[in-house]
Each structure stands twice: as structure tokens, then as C-alpha cells.
Amino acid sequence: MRAAIAIAVAGLAGCSSGDRSSYGGGGVPGDAGAADPGGSSGCTLGLTVQPQAPIAGPMAAVTATVAPPQSSLISYRWHVEHDGAVISDVASTAGAIEFATPDPGIYDVSVTLTGAPAGCAAVSAPINVGASGARSQSFRMRIVPPDPTVAPAFEKSVLIRGGAAVDLGVTPVDAGMATSFLVTAPTGIAAYLRFSPASVPEAVVEGFADATGYVAVRLAPQLHSVLVIPTGATAAPRRFPAVAPGIATTQLLLDAGTPIRGAVRAPDGAAIAGATVQLSIDGVPSTVATTAADGSFTVGLVLGGATATVEVMPPAASGLPRLSASLAATALVGALDLRYTANAAPVALGDVRLARAGAPLGDARVTIVGSLPAGRFATDATAIAATGTVRIAGRTDPQGVLAGLRVSPGPLSAVVVAGPADVAVVAVDASSGPIASLEVPPMQPIATAALAPAGGAGLAGATLDLVPVGALAAAGGPELHATAGADGALSALVAPGGHYDLRFRDPAARAAPLTIADRVAASIATSYRLPAALAIRGTVQLGGNQALPSAVVQVLCDACSGLERATPIAEAVSDGAGRFVVTVPDPGTM
Amino acid sequence: MTGCFYIDSIEVHPSVSLTPPAGSLPIYRGGHVQVTAHLDHPDRFEWTAVACADPYGQACSATPFAQPSGSSVADFAVPVWVSGDRAALTRSIHVRVTAHDDRGALAGGDPSIQYTVDDAPPALVLASSPAPHYTVGAPLELFAKYSDPDDDLAAVSVAWQVVAPDPAAALAPLRSIDGGDGSRTQVVELVPSVTGAWRIQAAAADPIGTTTTQQLELDVEQDHPPCLAQWQPIVPPEGAALPITEPTRFQIQRVTDDLDAYPRSSSDPRFGTTTFAWSIRAGGGTDRQPVAGVTGNAVALDPAAFAPGQIVELRVEAFDRTHTAISCPDAAASCGDPALPGCLQRQTWRVEIR
Q1: Among A347, A319, A354, A346, which Cα is nearest to A436's?
Q2: Which of B150, B151, B162 lies closest to B215, judged by CA?
Q3: Looking at chain A, which terminus has fewer C-beta neighbours within 10 angstroms, N or C?
């Protein structure tokens, strides 16, 4: 006997945060679907579907049955639609309908009952019929209600099967609990607070405590990790790992943290004054200190955790790179000695003449960027190498001469911006002494094309964003944009030597977005086929029974990290009935 | 001599006359007619109404379509068809009142009346897609819901016309929807080209040319600037700064706009999306530098590019296709059109690098 799944019109079970739901393999969306005007009256009319996970095919069929079984005195009008076409519209005395499902996708089934009790007169539900051999891909779906005082952001993982549009059914968003906190150190203190729910840490809620330390937020009913960063340096930031929202105001007590003392010194051992120093452990920063004339500093840090990072930003005039390093938090014992190594000692670049094909490049902004080993951090327990990050900027005079810059020797990049659309990335290395000249190549043309997922036709109107990465991004190089012509062809002028992420999009939603990471002009292909688009639709409800309009629905990558993880693949806004449609890359079929 | 005479009361012969309805002519198939009977001394009376296939009351149904009693005023729903077999349309109705006294005497006078029944005009109701306001350049849908009691809906035509301010404006047919209740709704699209009061007229005509005309008035406004509706991360209150401890994506999540919302509200090429201008001011200087080339809804800020403790201002301004200039001074962290309360075109994050 095959299993059947039922959806109830009232008393729908909600998904808790962090639930993983699977869609597209077929059947009625697990936590959703039916709409019945009588739902509020306690009617439990629903539809069951067999097979439970239908797969499309030439001989495939689905049977939908009204549940619970109704009286033989009731008559039914069944209506089934797929892709906007009516598949069936029949009057019947049967409480079930069978219809063919040759094509995958969403089949919207509705039935109107005549002679049924009041409130049980109709029910409808989408039925997902999967594609044969569908691949699946996991996404994160984030719902951001229009007002954080109505409900906190909500996130869950969804497994989407490829090859056909999918209805996710109803996503219930928990209204959460209004909760207040008092940040003290030991009296009230202004602070920033970031609440991360235990089940989905990225669905953060933020707030600012006022000068009395008071803040009110709405949180999901679960434990939260709370990062508190006070204003000023009298108290150290702290993370409270397990805070439960409650009715009573919760006090979050800060203190000055553990004082970490140390000194910052140049390669020759001289004290460096005016450098800013900050430590952090597992993302919780210390207070910020500025080194005194003798190079000394003291920061307040809450100890504990696994990994400590140290950041030192020397005064710009020193020409020294920014230093950073990671070490075991347990190694923070005794004074911290931060010393630049000899190779980091800045050398004068001299008067560098910038030219293009012999012509001086006047009034150009030049930013020298790069990273190299540049220092050593030592405590009583350990000594580790530190990475130096160089970012030094200057401007050429009308004769194209860049003067007065000092920079650590080593393989670095000069990003030259000669105009709004005139950028180049040129290698520089002062290891062998001053640099007399730099030849700056002109912008480089690239040509590519955006192709449709199937058939290879060009996608007219598709857009390409060229987003700088690496040295070009570090120097604030410009993002570039191109729009495809009728044949899908795209062209642009890019910075020679510059690295870009290519981000293709189709405003007409004929294809899903495509990102190609880290390309230079020479490695950009002549064309890119955009992935097939898969429409995902659903409904957002507050508490599972009230439409939530104007909510932002974001689909995010599940396997990414860093900023890419925070960048939506697709976005939409729910309409007045809480409905939304987003288009994601189709996981496809085998 | 005085005396008394006693006589039985004399039974008065009942009489009745009918008054034609005032002001409710002509009478249409599927419509109503109200008839008043003036009754004099009846002991009981009843109405009988029959439908006839000719205007003269010669070819009438043998079965009454209504037989009310008890009231001297009767309201009749005029049948479309003379009889249930739908063989002939009703062209007249014959209404009669029969009054008796207890002794069986029938009323005198004229107890019947004949009404000619005309072809019913189509019923027509106009509506427009609900919206807070209508905007120049933004497509809107107009609905004409029509029905006709005595004509096949397929034979009823609906003609649209823009009366003012642009009679040449096109009304593009979109679809026709069967209402399931004997009505049909025709949907057309209008793209207003100018502001002002737009008057739209629709006329539904049945096969013999009986026409019903309705008008709809719409107030069309200019394209308002876009409004920033949701963003991430939180914007700090005045005087405070948002600490960032890791690379952070500053994003506008939702912008409301009639034509250029974010996220884009439609793949229809007439709709676009918001463009954004981002700028940054670091180190407390006065120079606010544009974030070069970024027109999208998000900018990533990496704290590693700044000194710990440094204050950075990141600003975003939103524009639609009309690119309405933002009039506030640079010092204003947020700004919007004073005519649109609560609508922000500019937002600024004051960020502390941690």
C-alpha cells in the first residue's frame, strides 16, 4: 500500500527554524498548500495525493482525494491546472480525481463541494510533480518581514529538485517574542547588540541599546548567542552564548575584560607611536588602543575561545603595511611584542614617471596594494609570523610623476586610475630600489556573449557586471556593466591586469544568474551559457495563518562561505496575499 | 309616531382597477415591474401574470409565471423566456387581478393590464486594478464586467474609449474571464501618458444595438521617487556607530516604486529596477567618494581596508528612471521628498571598524 500525505486546512504544522524541507520531488508541499475560506472555522478538509512523490511520465497519473471522506450526498467540482492550462474541470459525485501528469511541474488542484457542511465547501492545493532523474540542490531561504517589530528574520534550508517548477507551500514565520535587555558595565551603557539564533545563526537580529543600556527587540523563541559591542573603551565587547528571550528584562553585564598589554616596534626596534591595535577572539573584538610614544598599548579583551587575531594599523606616514596574524587564544600569555621584520622596512619609490605610449599620465590616482610577510608577533608562549597588507595611495602630478611614496619592498600591484573609465593594474616591486617609470597600458576590450540555457541563442538584454576582485578591489577599482544586444553579445573595456568576477543576469528571467569567479581579460570566454531557470513559488504567513505581504524572500547559497554566502542568488517580495515567486538555477536532471 | 327601521347591510359589489407603474417604463426582460391594484370591497383577491411571445398578448403562456397574493402592490420579475423550454422570448406580459366577495361576486372594472416588454440592455460595471495611485507610464488594468439577461454573452460586444485627456491613447485587450454567474469580464490595459483625471468609457452592446455605457475616472499622478523600504544591516541611531568585525554586505533589500522597484517587480520590459549610488567617507574627512561603478543594491565593506576604530560613513541613494535629484544637504544622513512622508531616498550608515 502506498503512503499518502494529507494537508489540513486548519491547524497546519509549522516548520521550526532550521528545518530542512525537500521540494520538487513531488507531492503536496509538506507544510502547506490548501486554502479554504472555512479554515478559520476549524474545518479540517484537505486533499491526499497518491503517489506521495509523483514523477512525470507518459503513463503517469496522480489521484487526489478529499479528506476526510465525505458523504455520498455531496457533489464535487474538480478543477486542475498546469502551466496556466486547464487539465480537467469536471463535475463528479466522486471525492477523488485522477489526472495524467505527463509533464513535471506544479499541478493546481481545487475542488468545490456542494452539500458539504459550512466551512468545508472548497479546498485547493498545489501538487508538485517531479521530473524523472532530477538532481537536487540545497539552498537557504531567508524571509525578512517588512518590520522587525512584527517578526524576526527567518531562515530555513530547502532541498530543491531540478527539472520542474516547485511550490514550496506555506512558509510560516514565527512572530517571535518581544524581549528587552539592559546592558550594564556596571551601570547602563550604550551598545550594539547582534542576536544569532542557535538553529540558524545567520538569521541575525540587531539592536542598539540607548545610553541607559536599554534595548527592545523581537526574537525567535529559542536560545540566542548575543554579541554586545559597547560604545567607547570603558568596557570590552563580550559574547553571551545562550540567552533565552523572556518576559522580564535580561541584564547583560559587561566589564573591562582582561588587559592585554604590549608594544609595537619598527624593524630597527624603534617604538611606533600612533598605531591602532585591536585583538579579537572568535569574532569578539577587544577595545581599540592607540600606541603611546613608547609604542605601548593596552586593550581590554574577554578571554576564552579558540583563535585570537591581532591587527595593527601603523600611521600612514610610516609607509609600513598593516599587520595581521592569527594565533591560539591560549597563547595570549604575558606581554605582546609586535615587531615589523626587516623586509617590511619601507623604501622610497623615488620619482616614478607614469606614461602610456610615451605620453605622461598626469593627475592619475595610484594605489599600491598587496600582501607580504612583514612582521612577527610574540608572547611569552609563542611567536608567529604576521602578514603585512600594503595599501598606499598617491597621485601623479601634471607631468605624470608620482613622488614621495614609501612602500615595503616586494611584489605588489599599482592600480592606476587615470579617469573614470581608465584603469590599469601594473606590477611594482621596490626590492631593487627606486622605480624610475611605469608603463600603464590602456583599457583592454573584451567580447563575450550571454547564451540561453538551451539552443545556444543569444540572450538579448542580459546584463553583465564585472566586479573587481584582488588588487583591483583592494584599491577601489570601478565595477563595470554591459548589456547584451539582440544577439546576446556583450562588450566592455576592462582594466588590463585586473581581475573580475563576472556576474550575468537576465532581467527577463529566461535564465538563472551565473557567476564566473576571478577572470582577467585573457581568460574571459567568448560566450557563457546561463543556467536554466527554475521558478520557485510559495506563500509566507505570519504564524502560519496570516498572509505576510511585503516580506523580502531571499534564496541564498548553502555551500558558500564568506560574503558569497550573504549574497542572494534570487530575491523577491511577497504580494498582498503573501505569495512570492523567485527564479533560481535549475539543478537539472540526470 | 316614532319608530325604528331595521335593515340588513347591503353587500357592495367589489371592484378593482390597476395602475400602471409610474416612471418604471420601459419594462425589460429580466427586469422588474411593480403594479398597484386599487381594490374596493373585495373579500379576497389574487394576481396572475403570464408571459406572451407577442406584444399584443395574443400568444401567451398558459402557465402563469407569478401568482402573488395578499398585497395590493405586486412586484414581478419579468421572465426572459415565455416558458421553460426557452422557445420564445417574452415580448409582453399580461397581469390580472381577480377579486371576489364571500358570496362569489367577481370584481367589476378593468382587472388586467398588458405591458410591452423590451429587449434588456446589457448590465455593465467598470473597475480598475486596485492601487494607492496611478502613475504615468505604469500599465494598469481596467475591467468591464458585463452580463445580459436576454442575449448570448458571446453576441455582446464591449467598446472601450479614452474620453480624456488623451483620446488617442490605446487600450490594449488583455483577456476575457467567464464569471461563472452569467457574467463575463473583459480586461484591457492602459498606460497613462500624462497626469490628471483620466476618463475611460466602455459601451456594452447587444446584437440589436441596445447599449449600456459607463465611465470610470482615474487620477493619474507623476512618477514619484523610489522609497527605501528595507535594508541590512541596521542603521545606527544618531550619534552611534555600527561596529563591523568582518566583511559585511550592506544591502538595500526592498525599494518601493511604481515602475522601478527593487527587487524588480516584473519581467515586463516596461518595468525596470532601482539604480543605486553608493558613496563612502572615511577618516572623518569631508570628501565623500563614490563607490566606483556600483549601481546595484549592495556594497561589501571589508574592515581590513581600514584602521581599527576608524569611523566610515557609507551612503546609498536610490533613483528610478526619472532620476529625481535629492535636495537635502550632504550633512543629512537620510533624506526623502517632503511631499512623501516616510519615503527615504537616502540612507547613511555610520560604521565603526572593529
Answers
A1: A354
A2: B162
A3: N
b/e sequence A231-260, b meaning 16+ C-beta within 10 Å? beeebbbbbbeebebeeeebebebeebeeb
A207 in contact with B at a CB cutoff of 8 Å?
Answer: yes
What does the block give as the cell for A344? 617590511
Does this model's pTM top 0.90? My answer is no
Cell 512622508 sits on residue: B341
SS3 content of chain A, % helix, strand, coil (to 5): 5, 50, 45
Query: Which of residues B17 and A238 earns the better pLDDT score?
Result: A238
Q: How far apart are the first and last CA of chain B?
A: 132
Residues 6+ apart with CB under 8 A from A388: A320, A321, A322, A323, A340, A344, A371, A372, A373, A374, A375, A408
Q: Of A264, A378, A371, A363, which Cα lies nearest the Cα of A318? A: A264
The nearest alpha carbon in chain A to B294 belongs to A479
Q: How many CB atoms lie within 10 A of CB B283?
A: 11
pLDDT the model gives residue B69? 82
**Cβ neighbours of residue B317 under 8 Å, at least 6 residues apart?**
B276, B277, B279, B326, B345, B346
**Grid coordinates standing for A465?**
557586471
Please say whether the beta carbons of B143 and B204 come within 8 A: no
Contact B293 A479 (CB under 8 A): yes
* Inter-chain CB proximity A477 and B292 less than 8 Å: yes
Chain A environment of B177 (Cβ under 8 Å)? none
Here the contacts of B64-72 (C-beta below 8 Å, separation 24 or greater) are B65/B93, B69/B45, B72/B36, B72/B37, B72/B38, B72/B39
Report the Cα B238 to chain-centroid distance in Å: 45
Cβ distance A278 to B265 less than 8 Å, yes or no, reads: no
| Interface check A146 vs B, CB under 8 A | yes
Check CB contact under 8 Å for A508 and B233: no
Specify the residue for cell string 522609497: B227
- Tell me the per-residue pLDDT of A143-202, one tens digit each, with 9 for 90 and over: 999 998 899 999 999 999 999 999 999 999 999 999 999 999 999 999 999 999 999 999
Q: Are strands A20-23 and A154-161 parallel, antiparallel or unpaired?
A: parallel
SS3 B229: strand
Shortest Cα distance from B146 to chain A (angstroms)?
24
DSSP secondary structure letter of residue A344:
G
Chain B interface includes A566 (CB < 8 A): yes
Cβ separation of A208 and B240 shorter than 8 Å? yes
Cβ–Cβ gap A389/B304 under 8 Å: yes
Report ipTM (2 d.p.). 0.89
**Contact predicate A579/A535, CB 8 Å:** no
Residues of chain A neighbouring B265 (CB-CB closer than 8 A): 573
DSSP helix/strand/coil, A93: coil
> CA-to-CA distance for A578 and A255, rounded, in angstroms?
45
Which residues from A are below 8 Å from B242, CB to CB?
Answer: 192
pLDDT in tens, B196-239: 999 999 999 999 899 999 999 999 999 999 999 999 999 999 99
Q: On the CB side of B116, how many CA atoms lie within 13 Å of its CA? A: 6
Cα–Cα distance measured from residue B18 to residue B99, given in angstroms and rounded to the nearest whole number: 12
Instruction: Determine the Cα angle at B14 with ends B13 and B20, to 5°.
Output: 145
* Residue from the list B261, B267, B307 with its beta carbon closest to the beta carbon of A276: B307
Cα torsion for A200, A206, A211, A216, to the nearest 10°?
-80
DSSP state string for B68-107: -BS-SEEEEEPPSBSSTT--SB--EEEEEEEEE-TT-PBP
- Closest of B73, B267, B340 to residue A505, by C-alpha: B267
